[in-house]
Structure prediction request, 977 residues.
Amino acid sequence: MNLSVSSLAAWLRLSEDRIFLVLTIVVGVLAALCAVLFTLAIKATTVLLFGVSPSVLRFLLVPSLISLGTGFLLVRFFPEAVGSGVPQTEAAFHLQQGQIPGRVAFGKFLTGVLCIGSGHSMGREGPSVQIGAGLASSVGRLFRLSPTRAQSLVPVAAAAALSAAFNTPIAAVLFALEEIIGDMNAKLIGSTVVASVTAVIVERSILGSSPIFHVPQYRFVHPAELIAYAALGLVGGIVSLAFSTSLLKLRAVFLRLPARTKMFQPAIGGVIIGVLLIFFPQVLGVGYEYVDQALNGGLLLHTMFALCLAKLVATVISYSSGNAGGIFAPSLYLGAMAGGVIGVLVHRFAPFPTGNPGAYAMVGMGTLFAGIIRAPMTSVLMIFELTDNYQVLVPLMVANMISFWISKEYQPKPLYHALLEQDRLYLPEVGARMTTSAWRARDIMSRDYISIPPESTFKRALEIVSQHPERCFLVGNDGSFSGIITRDAIDQATRSGLTETPITDSIIRNPAYVYPDQVIGIALERLGKNPGLLPVLARGEPRTIEGVITSRTVIQFMENNQPGRGGDSPNIRTTTVENH
Amino acid sequence: MIDSGQAAGSFSRHSTLVSEEDSSRALDRDLFLLTFLILVTVALFFFTRTIAAREQRMEVDIAAFWYAQGERLLSSGSTTQAIDAFRKAVAGERENRKYAFALANALAAGNHDQEAMQTILRLREFDPENADINLALARLAAKHNDLSETIHYYENAIYGRWAGTEVDQRRREVRIELIQFLMAHQQRARALSELLILDAELPRTAEAHEKAGELFLQVRDAQHALNDFSEAIKLDNHNASALAGVGEASFDLGDYVKAQRYLEAAVLQSPESEPAKQLLSTVKIILSTDPLTPNISLKERQQRLLRIYTQALQRLESCLAQFSKNRDTGSLQKLESEAVALRPKLEIQSLRRNPDLVRSGLDLAYRMERATSDTCGEPSGLDQAVILIARRHGAQQ
Prediction:
């Protein structure tokens, strides 16, 4: 017995690789269970709060009163739970090495259920992603995984959660790669596939294998229909733009309101939603039953048009006012309605044979998803998986690409990133993302730097720099960044007798800089643009200094990381990452 | 330069400097945590399943509520609201085909034919032999005058699997529906063959035979109609409709004496029956004006012939007066001249000398009525009787 236990222990003398593999599966199951529970809780809450056939009074009171409570919870206890959850997960992955506080998952679950269950026009998928990612982060901490491993669990859990929430395992993997990681060739693809498949098995074993939408097998009737689908792409792009722009603008308005109003902002949204629900009860919550109707050609032209507008307004208000919920479902809803409208018009007026309007609603879903979420490949696969319809792939790709292009052309910043930037969080650009094997600026920077206060005179500056051999120095106070100044500038001013003059005019205010997560190639390229010093600034707070890179720090780094030296160097960590 | 604390933390697992004992302790901890986490996950799985099952039951109840609402609304004529209610029922319990079928029927009632068709076709995928589903599809196809699809689905319904009782009765009703559809679409031969199948399967009830008789009359198979109406009378000799049916069938077969007898009986049973009364009146005209009726005097024969002749000529002249300006009426004028030339020969002496003049006169009257019918519309009353009398005596249509 002892022998077998010890041999088991020996087998389980797990390398981190094995633990990670097991955790991938466990996290996949946990994320799926949470996503399923989240869905069930929202449904139960909706029935509890609104009843089976809600009265006008309930429509009016429920969102307002519940939003008062969620406003309190979100401001006091769970500020990270506001909004979708996808951008927050991206930020945690890219900026905080996947670290998400333990309370976030719980907070998101609670507030998400209350917000969506009380009628706010928001989706459940984004929150599911954040809940799953939050759990994964906690699991990573519990197992004391290395930061890179812990970070890797986040997109894995996100894929699992999305897979369970949407019943779309392939699209979920693609979403994790395309949106969360931002790298379609990421080495985490194996883990995300495992987690995603695990999650969908769990989800189906609980809820059954019935797809979210029941769609007839539509056909691509005539080649000329591609023109109609291109028009749908155009409309989808415009609606995506309208949605993203209005959401960002209204959110900016809410963010500018005094801090003391923050707690009541969700309730303001709740009141407006309550009024809207009286006239358009179809925009309540997630609203997939109406998407299903549009997909089956079961809604009239004017109804779909009205619902498209109402849903847009409702979602913009719900989201901007600081409630907890996602925009996945609303984007699909908007797409189905917009597509349905185009489909009916094409069906009536096109001079060539056309498919059922439901087929246009289906393509419309993908179109809006591509335009708003900006994940065109995910959108194609997601619609394919959601509807099980191969026939619409070509029209779907045509419409998606047009919508994506229009949206990108007129709103270059993707919505999730723009939302983060409103919160002063700046994600790395695509080129700098998640090449896990690459060295980062943080690896070669030095936290040991000289900083000259910006109000100093040249005399004081000379005193400071005289002890150091560098050619260029930071200007700033207590870690804040004001610019850089060269030794030559200080020497020249001193020689000219300007010793008591402040250095203000000689400060280079906008030098090249990098963020800590940017790859070393970018850092070296930018170092060449500055006179010998490259500031490394914090992403969340761009006027805060994290460190500096100079030619000396680069040389020192290279010496420390020569082949065979190993030791106290990030090289070892990176090698570990590459071996997953 | 490099944050050594961070770097060290990042690969603490792999550090060769960590002692064997510490490593073993860490692994024991990992093993414990992993076991604990798996147990928690399993417990959460069963908890979620329980919650899901409970919620599913709740959704089933809600769906049943909306289904009942939908039924109520549909029966009160509020089709749009009924559709909404059925949609909610279906959304609540997607696998419930009864709800989906109710939705489809409501959609069809609300003229949302395309969606109704899609919904029913989806249901048919699961149960292709279901008679109700096929019948609903047949009715939708019939609404769109899709002949082949309608026949296909009606046949599927007739030979499909029926739920409940009175299956034969329902099959017959569907076949009758099919026959009526076929007749409405001028598919007489197909309708007749379906009708013959129906006739062979009829139960021994007056209503069934009466209905079959009516259908035979509609497809102009008077002999089978007569048989069925006669059978119906055998089963219920006070059945006014069957009596009228025998009268009508006999009328179609040219047996006006029998037709008069049964039509009089029918009118006696059901005095308010206008069609029977009208037909009886025509029969009486025929019987009282037929110049070839046996066992009547020559004078009576001549009077009948003159009456027919005069009636036909008057209609011809009236038709000529009406259309001579704007139509080519050459053939009518030729007939008029022929009639004028025949008139002197219709005296009693001529008829005595040449009895065939009766038939010639009748034939001319028939041709005049036919020609005026083509130009001035369908005849009625005595004009119609002239045509029927001529046909009775062998005039070609």
Remarks:
- Chain A is about 60% helix and 5% strand.
- Residues 228 and 346 of chain A are 7 Å apart (CA to CA).
